[in-house]
Amino acid sequence: MKSSKLRAGAVLACTLALTACGGGDDGQLAIGGSFSGVTKTGLVLTNNGGSDYAVVPTTSGVGNWFFPNLVETDSKYNVEVKSKPDNVETCQVIAPTGRAVFATNRVDVACTFKKHDLGGSVANLKGELVLVNGADKVTIPAGATSFAMAKVPQDGVYGIAILTQPAGQTCTIANASGTMGAAAINNVAVTCTP
Description:
This protein is mainly β. Helix content is about 10%, strand content about 50%. It has one helix at about 1-20; strands at about 30-35, 45, 50-55, 65, 75-85, 90-95, 95-100, 110-115, 115-125, 130-135, 135-140, 145-155, 155-165, 170-175, 175-180, 185-194. Strand 10 (about 130-135) and strand 11 form a beta hairpin.
């Protein structure tokens, strides 16, 4: 008798726990996940061609999202990208399809920023010059008239600095810092004297 009461209590506890997690018979299950690479508005996700959701961007570009419309228990979901921010090249949905048995928070969306060239001109360089932009380091040989750094994500900041001056010369940089727009930056100017 005592063990049957314990079993009944355990079943009740499990049922209540499942209902609280979205696993009950009411079918009110949330579909969502995480996102990365979203710093601007424009990412819209859709489930089965409807139930659109505009992801709210974050400064860091990462966060979580959930469709506001809940789905029925055992229904199929198919998450797709309807539109993407203008500073993004592509957005990939990871684990986009499934069947809603419990609330789902594992439909992740990974967006890749557009990247653009960063470079410019060099004047009167007689020795070797080393430039840096964050972790990117470029060695420019004597006599060079131009240079290129690693591509920078759109809307990302850049700041080119001189790490090593050429022997016997002093070089300065014009237009060394800014924010990458929708096109390449090629007006950075390095001038060396004498």
